[in-house]
Backbone:
């Protein structure tokens, strides 16, 4: 999704901005541009379609210099992928430049008005409307901040913007409206940084301020002033981010996805760190702002999430219902927000919204949280990005994954960490509600503690076979993933991984439903990945495996180490270590990630930045 970077100080702004954009490449984009200002060189705008390296080449041919600048990577919403549609966009006078994340929902109406006033448009974007509007108001007030404020009041939708005007060469104006992605302002020594995502500026500063919805920041070299859209002053706390920016570098790995798959044992450990006390048999979630009596009152939990996080939600439902005996409904956040959900009756606080999101900026998930807030229902977020909007909206607390930045668009370590944190949350609920005794909880904690080691073992022992299977199947045009119960969402996640990065059409299905349709697809060319680790439904899975084999499908089974029965029935068996049934999905998904990764590599796909996808989806 679109990325924003800005700089004001005494360094070379082009370097800072382009480096920042490079850090944001993982978000997915199709064009990029910068605007750099210097008194003698004036306003220099450079834009290119395609990868950032195209822009970098352009900057070598036509350098831009100055100590103030903004840059943007665009993911097309309004208007195709052309240089004219790339940001920054200029107002009619050419003095004002704007970059934006989000969508101006009423842009047609605003554009119509501006055209009537004689403005001419050079792009098909909604952002150009913002540039012209700011320019329009600037003519009368001659103040960039005032003109930006006036403009923002007219916009509908969620927008994060940064504006610059050559008549005020010591100022950048940054603003956030709604949930179109965040704006972080990095504090330096007589310099300031602006970014939509903090990895963009972590090389320069760890001290950050996050803008809230309807905040306007006037950013100068030596000062930073934040006000609300209506002009009232606002104070925002400074967050110190402890992430090591090196953690976001690829090191010796060929792709971030591969690195992030390998980081899972460490990420799982970090998700558990400080949260479990084996001696007392207790789970301690410090970030949770709900008391035990709040937790006891909960009758229903609504989980809202998107993509991979939604799959985590489906797994979490099993964990919570089984361990804590609370009813759970799982919704795609994009559906939830429009289905007029009934969360709880007036005055009762017996429901909870659980938002699951890696980025904490997915617009649909944030809208679901806002819906909960509007109905007086508290929300808890399971979230990775520190200080993200979801973390701040979660009045019941943000349970951080502590997985570190995830750069590969296809989520891997964030997914398994989501499952680990969801399990902790389920145990915490069980502890407060008394559905598990401390002795039982201790057994779960022991299994959790052993999990990072088992994840490492899974990666090490399954990789060679996954590579071999990828070589055997990378020409396939379809794949079917089957699982039951808590492993059904893992089938969905395995299929999603494969289709996201290798563009092979893949479907996940509950194995019992296979006979109602997908069975028609089975022939000797179809790889069917069957998740069949031993649990209460194991025998049923074995029958499904037999049904696939009887129709000459190629069964790749995921089973427990040493399961000779399953091995005798499958064409190939990937062996994973055993853990408790409700933790097993965390191990089962790992070979599916590794398989998808190697298939994509063999097909020559852009693994970390698959076509058309974005890491964090800040538009509807
Ligand atoms: C995008 C990403 C997915 C991700 C989904 C939800 O579609 O490509 O990998 O699962 O957004 O993102 P979130 O940040 O809310 O977990």
Residues:
């Amino acid at each position: 999704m679109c990325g924003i970077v800005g700089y004001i100080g005494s360094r070379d702004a082009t370097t800072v901005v382009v480096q920042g954009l490079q850090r944001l490449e993982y978000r997915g984009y199709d064009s990029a541009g910068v605007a750099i200002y210097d008194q003698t060189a004036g306003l220099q705008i450079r834009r290119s379609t395609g990868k950032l390296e195209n822009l970098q080449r352009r900057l070598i041919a036509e350098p831009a210099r100055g100590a103030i600048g903004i840059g943007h990577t665009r993911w097309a919403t309004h208007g195709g992928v052309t240089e004219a549609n790339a940001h920054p966009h200029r107002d009619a006078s050419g003095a004002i430049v704007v970059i934006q994340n989000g969508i101006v929902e009423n842009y047609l109406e605003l554009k119509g008005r501006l055209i009537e006033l004689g403005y001419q448009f050079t792009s098909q974007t909604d952002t150009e409307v913002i540039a012209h509007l700011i320019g329009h108001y600037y003519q009368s007030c001659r103040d960039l901040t005032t003109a930006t404020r006036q403009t923002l009041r007219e916009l509908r939708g969620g927008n994060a913007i940064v504006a610059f005007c050559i008549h005020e060469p010591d100022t950048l104006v940054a603003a956030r409206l709604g949930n179109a992605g965040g704006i972080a302002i990095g504090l330096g020594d007589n310099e300031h940084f602006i970014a939509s995502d903090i990895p963009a500026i972590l090389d320069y500063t760890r001290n950050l301020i996050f803008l809230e919805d309807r905040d306007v920041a006037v950013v100068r070299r030596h000062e930073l002033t934040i006000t609300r859209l209506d002009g009232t002053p606002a104070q925002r706390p400074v967050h110190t981010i402890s992430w090591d920016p090196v953690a976001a570098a690829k090191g010796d790995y060929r792709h971030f996805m591969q690195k992030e798959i390998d980081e899972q044992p460490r990420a799982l450990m970090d998700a558990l760190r400080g949260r479990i006390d084996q001696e007392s048999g207790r789970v301690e979630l410090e970030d949770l702002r709900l008391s035990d009596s709040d937790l006891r009152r909960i009758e229903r939990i609504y989980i809202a999430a998107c993509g991979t996080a939604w799959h985590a939600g489906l797994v979490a439902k099993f964990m919570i219902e089984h361990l804590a005996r609370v009813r759970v409904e799982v919704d795609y956040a994009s559906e939830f927000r429009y289905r007029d959900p009934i969360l709880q009756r007036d005055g009762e606080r017996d429901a909870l919204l659980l938002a699951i999101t890696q980025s904490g900026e997915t617009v649909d998930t944030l809208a679901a949280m806002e819906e909960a807030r509007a109905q007086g229902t508290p929300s808890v977020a399971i979230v990775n990005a520190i200080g993200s909007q979801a973390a701040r909206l979660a009045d019941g607390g943000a349970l951080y994954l502590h997985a570190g930045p995830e750069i590969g668009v296809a989520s891997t370590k964030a997914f398994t960490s989501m499952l680990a944190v969801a399990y902790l949350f389920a145990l915490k609920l069980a502890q407060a509600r008394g559905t598990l005794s401390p002795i039982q909880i201790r057994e779960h904690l022991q299994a959790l503690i052993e999990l990072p080691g088992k994840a490492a073992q899974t990666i090490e022992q399954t990789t060679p076979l996954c590579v071999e299977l990828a070589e055997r199947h990378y020409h396939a045009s379809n794949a079917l993933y089957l699982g039951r119960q808590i492993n059904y969402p893992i089938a969905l996640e395995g299929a999603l991984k494969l289709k996201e990065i290798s563009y092979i059409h893949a479907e996940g299905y509950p194995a019992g439903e296979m006979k109602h349709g997908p069975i028609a697809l089975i022939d000797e060319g179809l790889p069917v990945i069957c998740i069949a680790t031993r649990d209460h439904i194991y025998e049923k899975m074995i029958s499904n495996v037999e049904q696939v084999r009887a129709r000459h499908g190629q069964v790749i089974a995921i089973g427990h180490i040493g399961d000779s029965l399953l091995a005798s029935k499958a064409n190939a068996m990937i062996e994973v270590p055993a853990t408790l049934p409700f933790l097993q999905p965390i191990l089962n998904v790992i070979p599916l990630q590794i398989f998808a990764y190697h298939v994509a590599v063999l097909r020559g796909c852009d693994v970390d930045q698959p076509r058309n996808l974005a890491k964090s989806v800040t538009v509807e």
